[in-house]
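Q: I'm writing up a methods section and want to include an example of the input and output format. Could you take the sequence below and give the corresponding predicted structure tokens, formatted cleanly so I can copy it straight into the document?
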Amino acid sequence: MDYYILGSGGFAKEVHFLLKKCKGAELKGFIDLYPKKDFILSGGNMAQVISQEDFLNKIKPSKGVSLLMGVGDPKLIDKLSRTFEEYKFPNLIHPSFIGDLESIEVGI
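A: Here is the clean output for your methods example:
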């Protein structure tokens, strides 16, 4: 599975940190409306930053592509959710999580 994170700031880097803990998950890049850099250092690795326009023109929704929300502003989350509504947004759960998974409901 290829993952892209919406946003390229501090919160997006924290989402990348969690993603690295999930086996089989590979970051392909960060998506930003107006990228300030082509690449950013995240967790000791260089990661590509793609403009929102380029991403939407080049990467179509498919089974092998998922997006992760890397922004915290509720208004921006709502806007991005509508812009990228055809893409999958899976839940990331840290592998050390302990809880009653049969009684916990995750997702929308």
